[in-house]
From TrEMBL:
HAMAP family: Glyc3P_acyltrans (MF_00393). It comes from the Bacteria. The gene is plsB. The lineage of its organism: Bacteria, Pseudomonadati, Pseudomonadota, Gammaproteobacteria, Aeromonadales. It catalyses: sn-glycerol 3-phosphate + an acyl-CoA = a 1-acyl-sn-glycero-3-phosphate + CoA. One of its GO terms (molecular function) is glycerol-3-phosphate O-acyltransferase activity. CDD domains: LPLAT_DHAPAT-like. It comes from Aeromonas encheleia. This is Glycerol-3-phosphate acyltransferase. GO terms for biological process: CDP-diacylglycerol biosynthetic process; fatty acid metabolic process. Keywords: Acyltransferase, Cell membrane, Lipid biosynthesis, Lipid metabolism, Membrane, Phospholipid biosynthesis, Phospholipid metabolism, Transferase. Signal peptide: none annotated. A motif (HXXXXD motif) lies at residues 309-314. PANTHER family: DIHYDROXYACETONE PHOSPHATE ACYLTRANSFERASE, GLYCEROL-3-PHOSPHATE ACYLTRANSFERASE.
């Protein structure tokens, strides 16, 4: 480091430490970027700036990384630990001569030629001083300090003063110079190539972090009104309604005003501060997984479409906060028109929400305006978010997907977007959902409470610690790649007005795949595991030791036979997880001389089904295997596989399970091996038997699938008793029998009486060929499936179902 830099560093040390509050991404680059601290590290920065270097030095010290001011010792040489592409522009006159970037890079490459064991990691680092993207229609000014991408020293000083508290230090994956030297050589041409790649990288980083300029609503409305598609829709509206063109145009403008977001970056910054306080008030912490992959896609220029599950009104705030906090651009969010009430509506609108009506039916002008607005968002490069379930889940399960927004996304892509469109499924989970009591009342038949300011105040009055929140970004799905694989001729439809025949079935398959990938990214926690165990127990009560042992059973299953690479497990052991769950005050805890008993009263049991259902899909197959071994002692491996294959299509559709049928034998072998390892079952005489010493743990595992099998048995036996029953009547009879079972046998789970699940089941039976399009059954197949499922139920349940089917 030069004498001048030493002096500058000494002078600036105090003001920078007071003015700059840095945040690093990722939060742990050593682990998340696979940095090897034992190998030399060199940082690559866009511009030579003493304030950038000093901020990076502070950040590296916090992260346990060597700082840029720490010389790189290679043998007897001391080399700088950083390289910069450019100098800042001078205050006056022309730009100084370029930095010796090429020579420095060439020197580092040449060292690899001299030392075959050397492998320097070059880590690109981008420093953001504020991330405001600006707004369309605003002219860039030489005095616009904050928006300057290459500020001189005076402007940089002002940026640090004004935006030092918003500093973001973004570490990118390391580049191995050994790999470059071995693959491409060490001559000067490679150094030139690295420089070009680095400039492109920093430019993309800037766009990924700030996004395109925010839309100017007036300009956006003018663009929409000038489009030929909306002009034609206005003319058709005028003819159809018998009104003037001026009135029809005013109506179209009103729809735009109702729909369009009015994104405010200032609100995003205020929101980050407020929401940071709110999450600390509400939750013990937030767990975020998979964000690095999404950041990489954004940097590569993908159009990002977030598709989260929908648990709570908090989802809108939580996901936008996390996305911004992870160094990405908050999306434009499709929100129900029911949320457009004062004061929430204007706040949501400034936060990126655009509002959508429940139905477009009977209003072609509104439909056209909405579609063109969405197309324009995609064309301008804004990320978008929509909830494909269409509404909040009242049961904790994923709802059947609504395909409207997904179809419009695909249609926008077919208009010739010049970049890949990637759907990012997102799993949102909570240890407490604020609306869960309201959901219970709605499922009992109460009218849905209309969203209002008073309702918001009611929620704010109840703020308290709600445990942890979870945001898991699932496996992204790039539409271009998906269509290339499943619809090879899709590009022939680009730019054509008519909807291609392959569109509807493709959208349906995409929707199912997205729901499956959301479930793949499930987050397991102490409360969901405790709910799973207690709801499976007789009288919903277990001793503390029994409950803790059952949590261990679940944890070992998920660790040894992972459901998905995207699902996440807690780091804590069963004892700690149980303590955390008990802190949420959702259980009854009593104690006698033998120890603690943890139980649920009737109301608690109903509410906790919501949290159990968040992870029920993870245990569907383990529970089915356990049920078969418990009910059919001595059952062979081949029979277990055959019976699972028979039942699995119904489970897959209902719970959005990830396995294909051909994967089941391998999965079942893994589950059988783990159940034996935990000594829950024994293998002898060519079959599998319950281990009497651990029978209770196996029975609790088996019980989790029982309510699902009971619903299947209700429908199957009803069709066998009355083969020519209509689909609507079958749904009604199934619902009536479910309610009867609930009353007689104490089944309280709200989804057990959910008509949507019976509708889904009948749809599955139809798609699997058990029913034809007219609901006429294949009685042979129905009887075989019933013979498989009904014996897995308890004798009491079977008798009640049989009694209900007698003439």
């Amino acid at each position: 480091m030069s004498i001048g830099q030493n002096i500058s560093r000494a002078i600036l040390q105090w003001p920078i430490s007071g003015l700059v509050n840095h945040k690093s991404l990722p939060e742990n680059p050593i682990t998340e970027l696979n940095l090897d601290p034992a190998r030399p590290i060199v940082y690559a920065l866009k511009t030579s700036s003493i304030t950038d270097l000093m901020t990076l030095q502070q950040c590296c010290e916090d992260l346990g990384l060597p700082g840029p001011f720490t010389p790189l010792e290679l043998g007897d040489q001391l080399l700088p630990r950083y390289v910069c592409l450019d100098r800042p522009p001078p205050l006056f006159g022309k730009r100084n001569k370029p930095l010796p970037f090429l020579q420095e890079f060439h020197q580092l490459l040449d060292l690899h030629k001299q030392d075959p064991a050397l492998d320097i990691q070059v880590v690109p680092v981008t420093l953001f001083w504020g991330r405001a993207p600006g707004r369309e229609g605003e002219e860039a000014s030489g005095w616009n300090i904050i928006s300057s991408l290459a500020p001189n020293r005076l402007k940089k000083a002002m940026i640090v003063i004004l935006k030092g508290r918003e500093n973001l230090v973004r570490f990118s994956p390391p580049l191995s110079l050994r790999h470059m030297a071995d693959k491409h050589g060490t001559d000067e041409a490679i150094a030139h190539k690295l420089a070009r790649v680095a400039r492109t990288h920093f430019s993309r980083q800037q766009l990924a972090a700030t996004g395109p300029k925010l839309p100017n609503r007036n300009l956006l409305f003018k663009q929409l009104l000038d489009s030929s598609v909306i002009q034609q829709a206005i003319e058709e509206e005028a003819q159809r309604e018998g009104i003037s063109l001026e009135k029809a145009q005013k109506r179209a403008h009103g729809y735009m005003d109702e729909i369009a977001a009015n994104f405010s970056f200032r609100l995003i910054r205020l929101g980050e501060t407020f929401l940071g306080w709110l999450w600390n008030k509400l939750y013990r912490g937030l767990s975020v997984n998979g964000a690095e992959r999404v950041r990489q896609l954004a940097q590569e220029g993908h159009e990002i479409v977030y598709v989260p599950c929908h648990r709570s009104h908090m989802d809108y705030l939580l996901l936008s906060y996390v996305i911004y906090h992870q160094g990405m651009v908050p999306p434009h969010i499709a929100a129900g028109i029911n949320l457009n009430f004062w004061p929430a509506g204007p706040i949501f609108r400034h936060g990126g929400a655009f509002f959508i009506r429940r139905t477009f039916k009977g209003n072609p002008l509104y439909s056209t305006v909405f579609r063109e607005y969405l197309n324009l968002l995609f064309a301008k490069g804004y990320s978008v978010e929509f909830f494909t379930e269409g509404g909040r889940s009242r049961t904790g399960r994923l709802l059947p997907p609504k395909t409207g927004m997904l179809a419009m996304t695909l249609q926008a892509m077919m208009r010739g977007l010049d970049r890949p469109v990637t759907l990012v499924p997102v799993y949102l989970g909570y240890e407490h959902v604020m609306e869960v009591n309201t959901y219970h009342n709605e499922l009992k038949g109460s009218r849905k409470e209309k969203e209002s300011f008073l309702q918001v105040l009611g929620i704010l009055r109840k703020l308290r610690n709600y445990g942890r929140g979870f945001v898991n970004f699932g496996e992204p799905l790039t539409l271009n790649n998906y269509l290339g694989e499943h619809v090879p001729h899709w590009k022939e439809s680009i730019g054509k007005e008519e909807r291609p025949e392959w569109m509807a079935p493709t959208v349906n398959r995409l929707a199912e795949l997205l729901m499956t990938r959301i479930n793949d990214a499930a987050a397991v926690n102490g409360l969901t595991l405790s709910a799973l165990a207690l709801l499976a127990a007789e009288r919903h009560a277990l001793t503390r030791d029994e409950l803790q042992a059952q949590l261990n059973t679940y944890l070992y299953l998920l660790k040894q036979v992972p459901y998905s690479p995207q699902s996440t497990l807690p780091d804590e052991d069963a004892r700690t997880l149980l303590d955390q769950a008990m802190e949420l005050n959702k259980f009854e805890v009593s104690e006698d001389k033998l120890g603690q008993i943890i139980s649920l009263d009737r109301y608690q049991a109903i509410l906790l089904t919501y949290y159990r259902n968040n992870i029920l899909h993870l245990f569907a197959m383990p529970s089915l295997v356990a049920t078969l071994i418990d009910r059919c002692e001595g059952i062979s491996r081949s029979e277990i596989v055959a019976r699972c294959v028979d039942i699995y299509p119904l489970l897959k559709t209902e719970l959005f399970l990830r396995y294909e049928e051909e994967e089941l034998p391998e999965l079942i072998d893994a589950l059988l091996g783990e159940l034996q390892r935990q000594q829950l079952i024994e293998a002898r005489d060519g079959g599998y038997w319950v281990n009497p010493g651990n029978q209770m743990r196996l029975l609790l595992l088996a019980e989790s699938i029982q309510e699902t099998l009971q619903r299947y048995a209700i429908v199957l036996t009803r069709v066998l008793a009355q083969p020519y029953i209509e689909a609507e009547q079958l749904e009604a009879d199934g619902l009536m029998m479910a309610e009867r079972l609930g009353t007689l046998h104490g089944i309280n789970a709200p989804e057990f009486f959910d008509q949507k699940l019976f509708s889904t089941l009948i749809h599955s039976l139809r798609s699997e060929g058990y029913l034809d399009t007219g609901c006429k059954p294949d009685l042979g197949r129905f009887q075989a499936l019933a013979d498989n499922i009904v014996p897995l139920l308890s004798t009491r349940i079977r008798r009640t179902i049989e009694a209900g089917n007698r003439p």
